Amino acid sequence: MTTDNWLTLMSIGGSAVVGYLVKYFLDKKAQFSSQNAEIKRQMYQEYVNFILGFITDLQNQTGSATSKQQKDIVGKMREFHKKAVLYSSPKVINAYADMLQYSYQQKQDSDSYGFHYMVLMTNVFKAMRKDIGLSNRGLRSGAIRLMRPLINNYDDKIKSHEIGLLLNARSAVSTRDHTKEK
Predict the structure, then answer these.
(1) Which residue among 21, 38, 50, 167 has the highest number of C-beta atoms inside a 10 angstrom radius?
(2) Distance (Å, whole) CA 86 – CA 88
(3) Residue-number span of the structural domain to which 57 is assigned
């Protein structure tokens, strides 16, 4: 065998090894992404089920949330946060943080509080949808329409104010962020 033949064989063998390693690492990455996506879907589904169930329970009762309901929601929010830190995209974490910070800093008895909080909540849902690869196209007005099935008089109370609610909620978050930077 000549030197050229050896070089050719070594080149082919080296290429095969490199090709195998590249495929191996790409397969591992795809497997990790698939497992992470499954965890996210389950985590997001549990969160959405709890939040929408909580809203439905509140609609079916008179008065505000009971102390047990408040403890439950705080516990679920903490559990979600623990998982979100490890598995969620930065957009989900930021939208979630914006929603909670708004809740901490605003007077909950103001007329616009519930509407703005709802917009921020739908921003979390929208970020979750995007994070698991779903499109938000066509939901309009920052996905506030995700809440439409839950609100009996949505068309009367909210539909005409969708854009204003979205802009005011974004403004509240934006103003808070700029104030902290100074």
Answers:
(1) 50
(2) 6
(3) 39-181
